[in-house]
């Protein structure tokens, strides 16, 4: 590596996590910070998911930073563009932009024992940092199924997280693959325009009514001029959501009431009993992500829509073939097939002490102490790391908990000059506790396969508890769970892979 730019803290990513981290460090007086972002603007999820109908499914007054309340949310569940503008404004208002290096994709990062720093290679130059904070997102790299024939398809193919706005769907014959959180938002938006829509559904999702509404000008006035009103709204939403944890993690049978509500919603939306049967899940609600929508189910009843209750098995130059053998002519395929969640690409690129890649450390499944620190990886912190995801509430709450913990860690490192690495026994004990708690959750007992699970069936994505308990765990940096790495007597210079 040649003349790397040196910095105390290097953050990767400018979604909610990376941005929030940069703001909180700035506020704590840690200014020697560089933020690397592969794209040309901040926003992460909300910059990339521009498909028609994209919106959050946790109310905006909770799905936002506690330190940057926004009185101007237009509705309970804000559309993508509003959330993206909010993140862009936050980056500007809190003075983070000068720290960001756009179009810098991290290609490799390796711990240098001799210099006691992280050496990071990007397509825009090299960096050396005392502390590395990875905030690359759990739902950031789209996943496409390996389908036979896909490369020979003569029409247009794209993933919902990389929407082709230049491709007019009017009068097209479109196949949509997947019926998850994104598909149920864009299907009703495109259905009126296309000539024909074939939706491939492997497993039907449970769908609840979406209680969304526009805020009145009086409400918005109150949010702006009486900040307590907005704080109360946020607190009310938080505790309302938090009550749902019991059903998810302690007693999945409590979810039966929610199932009845979802069944009634389905019956009201889909009069045809045969179509309704194909749309009725056979697993406990909550086992897969619960979706909310008022227009997805009615869209499936329209004459130009065909719901195939089978996966897509093969693609031919002008058609798609379902797992049940039926073939349909299409000219556009849209994948709503989710993301690389349990195989995040950055795990291939980060090498700890002794040249061990994060991916290899996770050969038996992802794990990290408090979802944040990994044994063998000194002065490295992960935001939205293993088992920090949620099925019921705002991810931003979890992100802010982790940010407080990591800020405290950075201040500890600053004060002591130590290089810290979580003890292996602390990491193991934490992970054992998480997996024990996972045993009784609806994600384990609910009778479904989901993207929460890795290929061994281990849930390495969700937090099996209340969010306030996670906040308690991450309230301060607990140096006693870490060991101090002494300078190496001698070491070979490292190369970044
Ligand atoms: C369509 C959709 C809707 C969602 N709705 C909700 C919701 O309503 N409520 C909720 O709680 N959660 C929701 N989520 C989850 C959402 O991802 C999180 O809430 C949150 O936005 C994650 O923020 P993040 O900063 O961790 O990751 P991201 O927003 O994914 O940001 C990661 C950033 O890292 C950058 N990056 C990645 N790799 C590299 C690299 N190698 N080098 C440089 N930069 C890199 C990316 O470009 C990106 O900007 C939704 C997710 C999706 C996809």
Topology:
Layout lengths: L4 E8 L3 H12 L5 E4 L8 H4 L31 H14 L6 E2 L4 E7 L4 E6 L2 E10 L21 E4 L13 E5 L5 H8 L5 E5 L6 E2 L8 H9 L1 H16 L2 H6 L5 H14 L3 H6 L12 E2 L3 H5 L4 E4 L3 E5 L2 E4 L4 E3 L2 E4 L10 H4 E2 L6 H4 L18 E3 L12 H22 L3 E3 L1 H15 L3 H4 L21 H7 L8 E3 L13
Parallel strand pairs: 1-2, 1-6, 2-3, 4-17, 6-18, 7-16, 8-9, 8-16, 9-12, 10-11
Antiparallel strand pairs: 4-5, 5-6, 13-14, 14-15, 19-20
The chain binds flavin-adenine dinucleotide.
Task: Name every ligand kind in the structure.
Answer: flavin-adenine dinucleotide
- The value of Rg in angstroms is 23 Å
Portion in helices? 25-40%
How many beta-strand runs? 20
Coarse structural class: alpha/beta
The averaged pLDDT comes out at 95
Q: β content, as a range?
A: 15-25%
Model description:
This protein has 497 residues and is α/β, with parallel strands linked by helices. 30% of the residues lie in helices and 17% in strands. The chain is built from 16 helices and 20 strands. The strands form five sheets. Strands 1, 2, 3, 4, 5, 6, 17 and 18 form an eight-stranded mixed β-sheet that branches. Strand 5 and strand 6 form a beta hairpin. The longest helix is centred in the last third of the chain and has 22 residues. The chain is globular, with a radius of gyration of 23 Å. The chain binds flavin-adenine dinucleotide (FAD). The site of flavin-adenine dinucleotide (FAD) has 32 residues, from helix 1.
How would you describe this structure in keywords?
8-stranded mixed β-sheet, 5-stranded parallel β-sheet, binds flavin-adenine dinucleotide, 497 residues, 20 strands
